[in-house]
């Protein structure tokens, strides 16, 4: 049963966690005593108290004996069959990982990676949610130079695959944790992005982006902005799965709040800036330009800058076609003509006088590329 599986996994995980230099002398004994003799009620009190302290910011993972015992009380609770105790233990574990922690503290907690996949697959939604947030917190950016190390350890475990199953979970808090986890990983090195993309998280994004929960749309757009900031093969995955149209949908609905539109904008602009010329042309054909054009000058200076850089790339990748079949007619840049019709070039002419030096510079570059404008020609 689940209790036996959790017990076996935690026993292996505890051994793995205790084998590191940090905390190896104080952690193994408590895990044995907590799993063999203590009353469940007593255990629940110990673990609940530890969770409350951790939730209030108290460092119960300190190197002293009491801190070691408090942290490994969670390990002992995880092997007990009582659901309320399992819930309390998982909640406590999430609190232990919630705030930035040192490499030493992570070494004490990494043994949980053996049992977390079982908790992520548990039938109880509360256990699943707290387990999911635990994994997510483990990969959260921190002030310590250990983020890539933590992510490496997590990605080598069975947790990522279990987390990705939760992208289609029915509870928003569980889905949010799973999305945030993917976001943390995809904001890291390309090797981490490649590892998570091989597990195919993106097919679930269609329903997330087309659903009614805007918080999930925003998280999904953030993840896609990380993916489209990568190499062309990552951009191609987004195109192949039809997710560009889904992001356009988020912008086109007109009801999205500022933060959501910003993330959707980043996802599409990163694609236009990082994709190959052919990928940019495909994205333009899919209709990314009109909703982006409507955002220029509407959100903030940072978004204006990335929009201008994206429009610059759109012009640079535009193919030239004759104005008519008649010989001798001057060829036109179809992308540029589209931007003219949408009023983008008019807006750029205004932004060239911006007090923001970067916006003014990119605007000037665009106008230099456009050249003298023959208004009648458009």
Defining traits:
elongated; disordered N terminus; mainly alpha; 378 residues
General description of the model:
By secondary structure, the protein is an all-alpha fold. Helix content is 68%, strand content 2%. It is built from 23 helices and two strands. It has a two-stranded antiparallel ribbon with strand order 1-2. Helix 4 packs across helix 5 and helix 17 runs parallel beside helix 20. The chain is elongated and about 80 Å long. The N terminus is likely disordered.
Quick overview of this protein structure:
The protein is mainly α. 68% of the residues lie in helices and 2% in strands.
Strand order of the largest sheet: 1-2
If you average the pLDDT, what whole number results?
Answer: 80
Would you report the number of β strands? 2
Uncertain residue ranges: 1-37, 60-72
Question: What order do the helices and strands come in, and which of them pair?
Answer:
Elements: H1 2-18, H2 24-36, H3 40-55, H4 65-78, H5 83-98, H6 103-109, H7 116-120, H8 125-138, H9 147-155, H10 159-165, H11 172-186, H12 190-197, H13 205-210, H14 214-228, H15 232-240, H16 243-252, H17 258-274, H18 277-285, H19 289-293, H20 301-316, E1 320-322, E2 331-333, H21 334-341, H22 344-351, H23 357-370
Antiparallel strand pairs: 1-2
Helix pairs in contact: 1-2, 2-4, 3-4, 3-5, 4-5, 5-8, 8-11, 11-14, 14-17, 16-17, 17-20, 20-23, 22-23
């Amino acid at each position: 049963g689940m209790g036996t599986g959790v017990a076996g996994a935690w026993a292996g995980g505890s051994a793995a966690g205790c084998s590191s230099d940090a905390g190896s002398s104080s952690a193994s004994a408590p895990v044995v005593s907590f799993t063999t003799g203590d009353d469940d009620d007593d255990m629940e009190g110990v673990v609940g108290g530890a969770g409350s302290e951790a939730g209030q910011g108290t460092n119960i993972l300190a190197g002293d004996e009491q801190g070691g015992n408090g942290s490994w009380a969670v390990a002992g609770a995880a092997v007990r069959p009582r659901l309320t105790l399992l819930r309390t233990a998982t909640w406590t574990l999430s609190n232990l990982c919630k705030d930035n922690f040192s490499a030493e503290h992570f070494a004490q907690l990494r043994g949980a990676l053996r049992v977390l996949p079982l908790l992520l697959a548990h039938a109880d939604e509360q256990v699943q949610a707290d387990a999911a947030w635990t994994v997510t917190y483990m990969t959260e950016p921190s002030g310590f130079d250990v983020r890539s190390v933590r992510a490496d350890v997590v990605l080598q475990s069975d947790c990522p695959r279990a987390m990705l199953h939760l992208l289609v979970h029915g509870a928003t808090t569980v889905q949010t944790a799973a999305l945030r986890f993917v976001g943390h990983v995809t904001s890291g090195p390309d090797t981490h992005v490649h590892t998570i993309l091989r597990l195919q998280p993106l097919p679930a994004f269609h329903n997330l982006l087309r659903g009614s929960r805007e918080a999930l749309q925003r998280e999904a757009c953030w993840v896609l902005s990380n993916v489209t900031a990568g190499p062309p093969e990552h951009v191609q995955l987004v195109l192949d799965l039809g997710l560009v149209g889904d992001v356009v949908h988020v912008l086109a609905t007109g009801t999205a709040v500022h933060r959501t539109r910003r993330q959707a904008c980043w996802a599409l602009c990163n694609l236009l800036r990082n994709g190959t010329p052919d990928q940019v042309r495909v994205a333009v054909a899919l209709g990314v330009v009109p909703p982006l054009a409507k955002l220029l000058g509407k959100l903030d200076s940072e978004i204006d800058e990335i929009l201008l850089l994206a429009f610059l790339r759109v012009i640079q990748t535009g193919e030239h076609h004759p104005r008519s079949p008649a010989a001798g007619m001057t060829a036109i840049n179809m992308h540029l003509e589209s931007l003219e019709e949408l009023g983008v070039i008019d807006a750029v002419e205004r932004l060239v006088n911006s007090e923001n030096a970067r916006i003014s510079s990119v605007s000037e570059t665009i106008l230099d590329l456009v050249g003298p404008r023959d208004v009648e020609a458009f």
